[in-house]
Amino acid sequence: MLKTEEKLKKINSIIVITIAVVFFITLNSVSFMVKMLKRRGGNMKKINSIIVMAIAGLFFIATNPAQAGNLVIKGSTTVLPIAQKAVEAYMKENPDVKISLSGGGSSNGIKALIDGSTDIATASRFIKDKEVKLAVEKNVFPVAFAIAYDSIIPVVHPSNNINNLTLKQLKAIYKGEIKNWKEVGGPDLQIVINSRDTSSGTFETWEKKVMKKERITPRAQVMASNGAIVQAVSNNKYAIGYIGIGYLSPGVKALRVNGIEGTEETTLNGSFPISRPLFMFTNGWPKGDTLNFINYVINPQKGQKHVAASGYVRLY
Amino acid sequence: MSNKRRITERTMHTLFFVVASASIVMLFMIMIFLFMEGIPIFDEVSVKDFIFGKYWYPTSEPPDFGILSLIVASLAVTLLSALISIPLGILTAIYIAEIASKKVSEIIKPMVELLAALPSVVIGFFGMVLVAPFLQNVFNIPTGLNLFNASLMLAFMSIPTICSISEDAIHSVPNSLREASLALGATHLETILKVVLPASLSGISTAVILGMSRAIGETMVVLMVAGGAAFIPESIFDPVRPMPASIASEMAEAPFRGAHYHALFATGIVLFIFTFLFNIVADHIAYKYKQVGEATL
Question: Can you give the pTM of this predicted structure?
Fold first, then answer.
C-alpha cells in the first residue's frame, strides 16, 4: 500500500516500453498493408502522412528521457510515501523545479547528506552522534526538521475481549513466548501473529519500539501492506497485527498499549509508546528550493495534508 | 517486379531473424544480470549456510540469510498443488478427448482454457477473501492463509496448462490404435487406460511438468494467500513463505546492492535453477519417450 506511487511509475515505464514495441510491430505490418494498398492504387499521400506520424510518435516515445532533478531527496523508506506525495504536488505547483526522490533507508540518506550527494536526507530516526561527528569533520552541519509522527497501533479481531496489552506482553507474543490468548486474559484461542515484511518502515518502528531489537518468531505471518493486515485480522478471531494509525478501520479493534490509547493526541504529547517523529535533514539552514520545499512539507494546508493521507500523524 | 519481391523477402527474413534473436539475447542478458547480482552474497555467507540455513532475518543485526524454509515452502506448495491438479487436469483431458460428445467438449475445452486467462492477482484475491475464511471455519484452524490454500489456488492455475497439453497429446493418438483395441474385445475404459494413455504418456508428462513449473514460479498468488511465515511447515495448514513471495515483498525496499538485495537475487538464482530443471526434464521426457509411429504429436 505504501509504495503504490512508486509501483505506478514502474508500471508506467513498462507500459511505455510495451507501447514502443507494439508500435514497432504494427509499423511493420502497416508498411505491409501500405504495399498492398499501393498495389491496389490507394491514396498515397494519406498513407504517407500516416506513416510519418507513426514514426514521429515512435520517436517521441523513445526519446522522452527521465530528467535529472536539481533538488535531490534521499533516505528513509518510512518517509517515502509522504515525500512522494509532497514532491508530486510541489512539482505540479512549481513546474520549473525538478526533484529526484529515492529511498534506501535513513542511514543511507544521512550518509548521502554527509558526502554531499543529496540536498535533503529523510530519516525515521534522529541523527546519531557518530554521524554528527562525521558530518562536522566534512564541514557539513545537519539541521533537523520534524515533518510528521509515525504511530503504530496493535489490532485484534473485534470479537476479542482484550482491550489492553503491555509492551512486555506484546514483545512476548511476537517472540512466540505467549502462544495463547488466555495467557494475557483473553479467550482460550491460539494467537496468530501477523507482521510486516522486514523492509517496511512500520516493521522497523515495531522492531525498535516493541521488540527492542529482538527477533520476531519465524512463525509470524508476513503481510505485504497495512491493508493486508487489516484484511487478515478482520477475518480472523485468532489474529493480532499492527498497523499505522491512518489505517485503523471498524473491521479491527485497536488495543491500548500500557493503558494508553493510540490517538493523534497521545502521539503528539509523547505518551503513546509505539511512536516516533520523522525527520528531514538539510546541510546548514536551507536556502532556495530546499527551503521552499521544506516549508511546503510543514505547511498545514499543503504538505501536512499528504502526511495524513499517507497514514501518519500531522505535526499540528 | 521480381527484384522488388526478392528485396521484400530478404528484408522480412532479416526482420524475423532480428526479432527471434532479440528474445534469446534478452534472455541471456537477464540471466547474466541475475547471476551478477546474486553471486556477491556468497562473500558474506557460504553457499551451504545460504541454502541450508533455517533462519531468514535479512534486516536484523547481524542478519541471517538462510533460505531452507523458503525452498521447502516452494517445494511443498508445488507438490501439494500437483497432487490436486494432476488428477483433475488429466482426467479432464481424457474426458474432453475420449468420452465427451463433440458438443460438450467444444464447450468445456475453451472454458478450461479460459481459466488460464484469469489474472493471478484475481485468483489470489479470491483465495484471500473467500477461500481463507471458508477453510478457517470448515477445518477450525487458526489461519486460512496457509500452504493448503496456496496449493489449491496454484492448482487452479496449473490445471489449464496440464489439461490442454494432455488433451493435445491424447488427441494425437491415432484412431487405428483405438480401433485395434476395440476390435480385440476391449471395453472403452480398457482402451483408454491401457492403450490411449500409455501411447500419450510422454505428452502428458510434459504437460504435468510444465504445469508444475508454472506453479513453482507463480508469485502473486503465494504472496497473497500463503501466509508468509518463514519457517519449515509441520502441517498443511501452516503458513509458509515460498521463494517468489519473499523476493516480491522485500525487493522494493532492500537497499540497492546491499547484502539483502544480493540475497534476494541469489534466491532468484535458486528459483531459476528449479524451473530450469523442470523444463530440462520436460524436454528430456518429450524427446526420449517420444511418441512413435503414428502416435507422434
Answer: 0.70
